[in-house]
Records
---
Amino acid sequence: MTRAMVLGLEAVLADGTVISSMNKMIKNNSGYDLKQLFIGTEGTLGIVCKCVLQLQPKLSDTQTAIVGLKSYDQVVELLNLLKSDLAQGLTAFELMWHDYYHKILQLLPDLRNPIDTTEPFYLLLEYRSNDQTNGKELFESTLARHMETGLIENAAIAQNGRDAEAFWNIREGVSELLQIYAIRSNQDVSMPIASIGEFASELENDLMLSFPNIEIFLFGHIGDSNIHIIASNKSEDDCAKITKLIMQKVQQYEGSISAEHGIGILKKAYLDYSRTEAEIQLMKTLKSALDPKNILNPGRVF
Amino acid sequence: MTRAMVLGLEAVLADGTVISSMNKMIKNNSGYDLKQLFIGTEGTLGIVCKCVLQLQPKLSDTQTAIVGLKSYDQVVELLNLLKSDLAQGLTAFELMWHDYYHKILQLLPDLRNPIDTTEPFYLLLEYRSNDQTNGKELFESTLARHMETGLIENAAIAQNGRDAEAFWNIREGVSELLQIYAIRSNQDVSMPIASIGEFASELENDLMLSFPNIEIFLFGHIGDSNIHIIASNKSEDDCAKITKLIMQKVQQYEGSISAEHGIGILKKAYLDYSRTEAEIQLMKTLKSALDPKNILNPGRVF
């Protein structure tokens, strides 16, 4: 999360006051942590002009794989095991549902499926360390162990940087997909990790019942509770209805209507699907206290 | 940092409103991140009643060492190298200055110095992973490499859990020290990691010039920018003067007068040593907006 990397910042308030909180310390408990007022508030409480980011050393060894799994529950089981096996070295856990994965392979003929079976779920995994001697061995032996127990159905490990790039191109093929389906509802939402599988199946069923010709593509940063939904139908009008149905399903699963991209204008009408009336009232209290004339990015968020 | 582990919480506002933000998602950008108002604000904006914490799997392998170094600059160089060599597996980087270390060994005769030389700086290191096969080897070979280059002067690696406990007992001997020196200034402060060494030398010099019989003990979680200072002299009156001198030195180095324990009542008079007038004014704006009758933990922080 970007928030966790921001140590300090400088922001200008609505009345022109410059709040310089350019903290460089990891630990600082001298009064309120004011930077939190400006991170993720979409410019509605102040304008961020500078920031201090905590950097991490670049690690020299990267291992990449695509693995196939039979069920979402197995995806979650594998996530928990890998967080333990690979500790903080697990740097990508990108889930692609069958229809997304094969649509990308069809759209981008230069890409091929690195595993020779068809599975309901494909997972792009990355492990980083600075231990070039043992990194590859640890990653390979870990995946082999989970294949022996039957948790992983099939796996392909990148043998070089070119393989790894080709694996990532499947995941990043989303930009091609968005060009093909210009009329669509494109949502990034989140919910507790264990619920995402059931949410996704129910959502697909509900959408297909209401919109018989709909095409639905799902992928997500599952380790971050996140799922992206691209759903295309014939008209913009359909897409507005699709968006509403997605948001209702997110509400039912106590999820967040925006995992990554904020509320802005487009999701404003749905804010109360994810936040209580008391929470929204508190946001408004903050807004009035800091920007009484409502001049900072007015009309956004609520 | 605890803040980074809190996913959600429930808090009661001054007017009795219950703000339930029991978020369970890693990524959630649906409006303002309200939990940040209540973390570290010492009960002045609301009373936290519940919280959701993100847990991490316990790792099975722990490697522990005490190493001796010749200078603070070498400590920082080693920190940067180990963050790269051991990545996120570096779970402790506890620096003990010579006088602290040897005072603890003298106070607690069951403990012994595991390295056979006397050094200006002693560092307690811990590395955790789930890789029992390679964990020990990686840790040992990493330390050996930094000894060969002369960065580390001397090192002792715990061979079993009993050794590791004995190493930690030196660091944790601080509780004994605080019992012996009941009259003292006991401060936890932070500043940019690279400045801590110079800050500490200057502070020791300044304190010894002003208080000829003073005893000063320094240790800190250097990876978190933190240094603890225990300075004892004859009277409470002396200790108040010592605290003021420490706070002035922190201000001079653009540090934080409280790394971990907050402001409360004891550090209130020094808040403006670490925060600007505009920042303190913004804290007061928040306080007035959320607690206009000033009934929540009044008199704390500012």
---
Amino acid sequence: LQSARKGQSTTNLKDIVQKKLEMLGEKFCADIDRGSFPAIRMKSRSTSNIFYSQELRQYVLGDATITRSSRNIAHLRPLTQMIWTAYFVHELIKQKKTSTLRDVYYSAQAYDIFFKDQSESDNIITDLETAIGHPRESFNVFPEERSAVFGDLTIEYTVPGYEGRRLNLSSHPDGVMIGPALTDAKFIETSADKVIVIEKGAMFTRFVEEKVYENFNAILIYTAGQAPRSTRYFIRRLNRELGLPIYIFTDADPWGMHIAMVIISGSANAAHLTELTTPDAKWAGVWASDIIDYNLPSDRLNDRDIKRLKELKADPRYGDSHWQRQIDIFMKIKKKCELEAFSRYGLTHIVEKYLPERLKELEA
Amino acid sequence: LQSARKGQSTTNLKDIVQKKLEMLGEKFCADIDRGSFPAIRMKSRSTSNIFYSQELRQYVLGDATITRSSRNIAHLRPLTQMIWTAYFVHELIKQKKTSTLRDVYYSAQAYDIFFKDQSESDNIITDLETAIGHPRESFNVFPEERSAVFGDLTIEYTVPGYEGRRLNLSSHPDGVMIGPALTDAKFIETSADKVIVIEKGAMFTRFVEEKVYENFNAILIYTAGQAPRSTRYFIRRLNRELGLPIYIFTDADPWGMHIAMVIISGSANAAHLTELTTPDAKWAGVWASDIIDYNLPSDRLNDRDIKRLKELKADPRYGDSHWQRQIDIFMKIKKKCELEAFSRYGLTHIVEKYLPERLKELEA
């Protein structure tokens, strides 16, 4: 059994974020004590300052900065909102509670801080992510959507009431949810040597039923479409902390490809964050070429699919030759297909034939 | 601790369904042996044969029947498709595998049975539900979407590889998924005296963090919007087998009301089934009247909301005076609000004030 190498990392992360929030507050107080207007300088998130980094294989912010100062009347409102938000999430961490974007929006009203709508409060939280340099999940603001995991990984909880308790993630064959408790858990031990990420619930259940976790030593993750941010963070941890390779299976269409890509390289609007990507994760299928090679039942690409493929073709994240080739094949055959299409050859075909062939190919 | 009263029921259900499928096959064979055209008679699902039953508090089918006979060339295709589908799901039960609607559509191609699209195969599965009298989950065709549960309930698995293994559903604070394994599990023991069903992930997490399961002896269920059928079946089992009252919390708008109503009284297109409803479950909030009584932050109803409220007003499932009154209040104040709106009074307000007041009111 493999032991987790950096099991302490999340606990440390919370401490670091708490410290950074406190430093932010101390800085404002010091400004006031010195008789100067409180202000904060942070990286600009304007599109002109977003660049694709070949090295990090994700979008990043450039060097342009903006200063938000209480000297400027136009800045007073967002600055005040940001200071309150920093206070609020600091309380969340201290009290070990979690929240959501929607919840933060309403909570502000308890403090007579008003946002005109949720997009205003969401934007301030993104400012705070930029200033602190960590995703909102690290200050306990979690997404509404949830996905699930199944496999031989023993974790240890750090959330109140569960501190020190352990669970093996193969305890429940339908999968356990990836929420705040799992996000902050320590990784203790695993016998797995890979992670298989699956877009569809049907295939996740098929992989559990066909004992992929045992026969392929895999931890299985179900994303339920586009992976929620906390799931992308969890996948990154499995890759970084346990050194496990990540294989992503999606439908063979531009939307499936992009589910894989967002796990691998993130999105442009998270260019201010580097903790949500897993650049070494691999899109393992279903490829456009698989539609031909495995003679899979398919549907015709529609106009929206084709428009999207053209966008992806020009996207720097898709610069690699494998991605480019798959996009070209999609365009040529004008077909797409779903993970379930393998059932055309019987329910177990995908696990007994396709999966081992693909893993062998990718591991080579 | 309370022990489950009818812990064996799901195992028996699978046996019953398997037997019914076999009887269906034997009937076709007997028809052929007798030299007559194989045929099946079943209740008509045409809208003229769908009625609301005050007694069952759900839509049911009337006495009109249809006969599908191989004597009629126009019936040959759907009859053949239905026989194959019955064979396929019988195999699923025998091999203890599960599938989805999408998967059944593709699997047919492995047997040279063709459906022109998924709606055709979905329809045949509904025919089979009608003929057998049990929901498709009972013959292992599960929904793609999943929801979650958390609370003190010990279950015992019956799925392959897990037979006899037990799990307490409070083992994972993010919740465990309600999928095939949980649907077929036996209920062993619980200390809970109620079930609280919640539409939103944020509130589910809040209820876990604020220890509602402990302080209110509740099993918590997260539906993620409209409850998937397997979740409705699971809620019914908690009510019927364990005798637990069910309280449903949704947003205060017509869509939230209807999430509660579908759990309580089902939908018109499941009029052929009686195992998916929980007529004694209660919509516990957020009511239109709560927006006024608790002075909650609200949004204006839009045209779609108002149109929907008018439909619900005329819907026989909403005949009860409490529903009618709430619809009238919505119409009058022209406002809606979300579960998260309680955060306006602090994160714990909903659990510390609203929840106990509402439960007291409903239990009175």
---
Amino acid sequence: MTAAARESVQDPPARRNLKLVIAYDGSRYHGWQRQAAGLPTVQQQIEDVLPRILGHPVTIFGAGRTDAGVHAEGQVANLYTRNLAIPCQGLRRAINSRLSGDIAVRSITEVAEDFHASRSATGKTYRYRIHTAPLRPVGLFGQVYHFWRPLDVEAMRSAARMLVGRHDFRGFATTSDQRRTSVRTIFRCDVVEAGSELQVICQGDGFLYNMVRNIVGTLVEIGRGRWQPQQVRRILESRDRSLAGPTALPDGLSLVCVHYDG
Amino acid sequence: MTAAARESVQDPPARRNLKLVIAYDGSRYHGWQRQAAGLPTVQQQIEDVLPRILGHPVTIFGAGRTDAGVHAEGQVANLYTRNLAIPCQGLRRAINSRLSGDIAVRSITEVAEDFHASRSATGKTYRYRIHTAPLRPVGLFGQVYHFWRPLDVEAMRSAARMLVGRHDFRGFATTSDQRRTSVRTIFRCDVVEAGSELQVICQGDGFLYNMVRNIVGTLVEIGRGRWQPQQVRRILESRDRSLAGPTALPDGLSLVCVHYDG
């Protein structure tokens, strides 16, 4: 055995790749992504506590750039650390004890070197909560969109079904979205009644900027009777944002989970 | 019939006394009561929208001065208005449409001239929510106290039972409370398991400053095994605040309702 071969056998790996599942209440943050201006964001809050725990500066890579006021139950991020000693459970506890109560690292697991929270993702699931009871739900302030006028749930459901499949969703994207292709696949778009709430659950292989909020804004217009469900087909075919509804408030939106193969 | 008598028959009442039931998420407010410094408070938020609706400046009298971060499902206030035209339902809608989503006037009713939200009250019910699941409940940020270590619920219950009755609660009051008498009657003090929560429900004819939060702080110390339930008796007998537990966070506390005779 050559010295080099012996070395490569004995060498511990130079770094570990860690996958974090993160929940947060986005109300007090300017979205997930670190901002140049130093505004509080979820990524910045987590990155700022890591150096004292891991012993070196760290960048975390998130799967989804949630906007200001948008929440997450299962945001995923990964980070590389040269700290080979700290166990995942201990790291999770150390991070959480230093974070504010509106951010929680739910789990940390060691993953393959090539795992990337965003590039390895095969899809995401979002949930949008519409509170439909007449009384303003003060205890859910920032967590739901309060819409108390009657909604035709069946009309919303048939509109939602037309979104399922592979389509060009440009008409549902806020126009500043500059991504190359606006073709995405929606696997599931359900309108679910849950107590005093109507929830729109949307699972897809990817989403354009504001796409879920524009879908919800359109479904609400259909539910209140301004448009027929067929409006969804017109928006998809024309790819014309001006035919779709307003962008629904961020409050009701949550990134439920990020999907990966295997 | 004299002219004076005729006048008193024909005159409409000079003013109406209105009773408001109000819910709020106290997270963003410096308590109920208007502050000299102009800090945002719930009373100030409501008083500030009233002149444009009623046509004259208004002071509202609240039943309970909830502290910063404390919530309400059923705070009660009354106000006198010279506006004899506006119906209660219309007033309620007009106020709510001008308030932020974390405050809601639940009802407005016309009451007798001598009704006073605070002085007419015969009691209040508070609820304190302790979230006991291990994972930090980010969606309930500001709404609950997260205590994830094991709690002996039976010990807490037997301690809570000792609080029921007429006692001098000075040992459970924050010492800055200068009220004449510290004798109060607790009608009910229950420790209720509700899903991932332990709720302390406390009903009494009145509460000293921080009294519910000091009771909860003491019950938690008993639940975690630091003290025996009998500690409650020692605190009541000694009237010594230093024997009681820490003041629990405001987050978990909510004024559920205010009681009146009849």
---
Amino acid sequence: MSAQTTEVSVLMGSQSDWKVMKRAISVLEELGIKTEAKIISAHRKPARLHSYITEAEEKGVKVFIAGAGMAAHLPGVISSLTTRPVLGVPLNATLDGMDSLLAIVQMPGGIPVGTLGIGGAGAKNAGLLAAAILATGNDALCGRIKAWRKAQAEALHEDPLED
Amino acid sequence: MSAQTTEVSVLMGSQSDWKVMKRAISVLEELGIKTEAKIISAHRKPARLHSYITEAEEKGVKVFIAGAGMAAHLPGVISSLTTRPVLGVPLNATLDGMDSLLAIVQMPGGIPVGTLGIGGAGAKNAGLLAAAILATGNDALCGRIKAWRKAQAEALHEDPLED
Amino acid sequence: MSAQTTEVSVLMGSQSDWKVMKRAISVLEELGIKTEAKIISAHRKPARLHSYITEAEEKGVKVFIAGAGMAAHLPGVISSLTTRPVLGVPLNATLDGMDSLLAIVQMPGGIPVGTLGIGGAGAKNAGLLAAAILATGNDALCGRIKAWRKAQAEALHEDPLED
Amino acid sequence: MSAQTTEVSVLMGSQSDWKVMKRAISVLEELGIKTEAKIISAHRKPARLHSYITEAEEKGVKVFIAGAGMAAHLPGVISSLTTRPVLGVPLNATLDGMDSLLAIVQMPGGIPVGTLGIGGAGAKNAGLLAAAILATGNDALCGRIKAWRKAQAEALHEDPLED
Amino acid sequence: MSAQTTEVSVLMGSQSDWKVMKRAISVLEELGIKTEAKIISAHRKPARLHSYITEAEEKGVKVFIAGAGMAAHLPGVISSLTTRPVLGVPLNATLDGMDSLLAIVQMPGGIPVGTLGIGGAGAKNAGLLAAAILATGNDALCGRIKAWRKAQAEALHEDPLED
Amino acid sequence: MSAQTTEVSVLMGSQSDWKVMKRAISVLEELGIKTEAKIISAHRKPARLHSYITEAEEKGVKVFIAGAGMAAHLPGVISSLTTRPVLGVPLNATLDGMDSLLAIVQMPGGIPVGTLGIGGAGAKNAGLLAAAILATGNDALCGRIKAWRKAQAEALHEDPLED
Amino acid sequence: MSAQTTEVSVLMGSQSDWKVMKRAISVLEELGIKTEAKIISAHRKPARLHSYITEAEEKGVKVFIAGAGMAAHLPGVISSLTTRPVLGVPLNATLDGMDSLLAIVQMPGGIPVGTLGIGGAGAKNAGLLAAAILATGNDALCGRIKAWRKAQAEALHEDPLED
Amino acid sequence: MSAQTTEVSVLMGSQSDWKVMKRAISVLEELGIKTEAKIISAHRKPARLHSYITEAEEKGVKVFIAGAGMAAHLPGVISSLTTRPVLGVPLNATLDGMDSLLAIVQMPGGIPVGTLGIGGAGAKNAGLLAAAILATGNDALCGRIKAWRKAQAEALHEDPLED
């Protein structure tokens, strides 16, 4: 897979989701994976979502990440349109994000969505998991992930600092 | 509107939802409204759902009722495909139906779903509300609903009976 | 139905609900539907609520929207007083609005309330759903709703903007 | 107050609530308090509920107990119709009774409902609390309650028995 | 009962509860009922709580109101020490007050606590309910409560004001 | 500490709790620790609970385990009466045990209860944790716990068996 | 990758989890993917879990699936030991599986677990998602997944059958 | 046990947990118990956590306190690595700390964690409970705890102060 191919697509339903979802992009770019981000609402533009997923698959996207809040249907609708892995990030718009978590994770048998945690930590982990998925067929990427994880661990100090 | 036109469509994602959702049909038929019921999964047959909604609108359906469990996307997806009123019935497959309730009711601004209660009482009320919607333009139906409600009240006895 | 008739009544229990509930009015006015808003507490003025609902029906109101928080009885009480469609909007006064959602949506069989989401998105959707209900008998209104939905979709941009 | 006067009224919305609510009656009768039980749905018979409360007050009822499930409005509606103490018992019809609990206890300021626990223990305690309320002006009843409580405590054995 | 007797005692576990619980005192004083407020923690001063309840009953207290947060044991412990009516007010210290609500309302059969809503509305209603309890044996107080309720209703305006 | 001294007391509020709480006794006996079990309701016998805790401490009890359901006050009340470690086991009587968990674990600062999981697993773990507490001053017991844990691990088979 | 290599490992903490987790194995085998299942408790055998993960990676396992109930740590602990994709399945042992869902999905940033739904539907979807992950580098497998999905959709009938 | 030995270890997963967890240290120091605090993430540094627990036990640590948020695995992982008492403090990072509470308290049978309340009150109580555990074999410490509790009670004033 050449560096020029976009391998991960990060989708969300509205501009307001971007400040959280860009954390997925950041970690993917740190790991050298080309991504694209799009705002396409499952509810407001269902036909456009359908055409986008088809186009994205055709141009080489292998993993989809979708962030959504409230009655969060975007990840599940994407999963109904593709057999590629779909990762869902519940966003906290109301009810501390519990509505969104349940609306993403409780998919019926046959249409999977791999769900990450609510909000920023979940978005970051969606990026990492997408990288790990691509690394199942890419040893160099696997090495970069291991290095990233090692650096993350080494950055921690054992002794608490006063605030 | 002649009696031959199907005015309400009742949709659900799987055969197992039928035993609850048929309570919506029952009350609609009691009130003399022609309905049809279909099992079309939003996740497993997204394209078929799209074509069905278009066909249904063309043949005169004016209200859609959709029952769904778990990450219940069916009512919201239908609302994204039509401007007709969509009523949602959360079904209890897991978590006492709380996942389904939140996945149906918490729709983002712009794509409404009128949500009824969890399970059988909700299905019955979806039928009644669909009838009330049609009655906004049909005085004869309005009279039948008033009679139904009156009969319902009169069937109650004030003195408790030992079991 | 002439433009002068008030077709939708938006009710709430206290002045503090107005800042959310006026979003229902806004969307109804954008769609050319005449509405009126009233503050009538189900608990503090039960007899006045009863007389208002009767008067409103007589002067042509076809859909009632009611917003309420906490042990939110207003939509259910209205539904017990009329056979017209009643739409409920749970307001977040405590417990993130979960108390209000359950107190509105879990109506017993026979007395339906079509419930929208918690807070502002729900109020806006209540307005849209009321319009969709009136449009089942009004093709011109149906066209205005379709145009509104199309404009809403077209206002979205696919590429995220930095904050 | 003579023994012939009915001092407590126990209300519920449907026959199916009786098997729980009769526990309130039992404890009131054990304490020598005259009660009556009625099934009057707040939603299905709002006008009858209004007239009943007025009649009951006139014939001497001093405390109202109301059991209700789901979007449980009965206790709150009664409290809006009387200034007598109203005690609410949440019944478990769905969601383990959590919907009912919140719909009863979260009353707005100005219209109180004293809420007991969900189900049978709550019904029994509603009877006891109604008795305690009447005993604030009745020393003989106060003595009977103390005796009841003492007997209850003495019936307990400290050493567990194998099942 | 002379005006000099303290008829209601309002208890709480810490000074920080006072800003909410004083709303109970306010309404009781408006209705001409003599009260006293005390901070006595069920957990930190169990023996003092026991002696206080005995003393309070002896000097004529007829209703106890207790506000508590978190694992809110104060109302239940008071109910175990007296047969007088005990009203509980859940305070929101954590978890939106849901922990406190459940720890107060879910009392086992035999030891009742009449529970009001979470926070300020609940405290106000506890005062009103205590007054209603005393009014079961005091017609003059009953009249003052009716006047209070009427004034409350009349203070409401039906037309929303812009903020 | 001689084998004759009772070192752990296991308390519960009613006979119905015994079938779960005896799992705490079982594990303590397996580890050679002398225990006693008592049914003493915090709400029905507050004075007896007080005297029992004092007696138990005097005869050498070093750890208290208390199981309780619903508005579960027993562990917290015991902690208010002793400075010895108190372990709480939430029992599932209603609401899946969530009411009991919150009523036990959310103790205010200053009065600790070490809380275990809901039901049988929690009761077993309360026994194990009580043993671990005693083992901080008893190396022989520490060795027995290590052996128990090792045997537990060795009893597991890695390959699933068909049912 | 030859057919002889085990590419997916399905782990669980106890034999009782097998009846649910074998649904993941079933779908993987239908899709021609070699798997192995192991019962290794994160809590009872932490060192063995560590050695197993290392061995499994060395012999070619590319995706880990872990099912766990209650305070479900297994998926997160595995993710801390490998950079391969880890999929978590919450099992319903208590609290309807809500405890397990939160203990799996709410991982801190840096250690991802892709979480599926609670129970059997989640286990099946974990198998499907693991297959989709492997298919990002295997076009033949991708074709088999598409065929599986198509067959799934075609098995649905649109007309409800009476029970 | 000499005063120089560290008897309690307080662990947490990140620097941000320190502002809450230091409340455990404060109370332990007030009671004259030597402690140490370390930041060691169960997920980011699993091997280091393992080696630290072994070292700590060898140098005399008798009780472990662990604070963690979200999918809070730290206390349970520590309990899997030692037979010493482990106390868990749920921290509120998301969902009001409910995710963390369930991920800590709902441990499977055989691996106990004594769980305290969410946040600061829980951290303080973890310190107190650790002291009570050590006091089962240390009468002087037991006396200091009794004095601390007495001082805590005496600091309370019974009469509320205006804010």
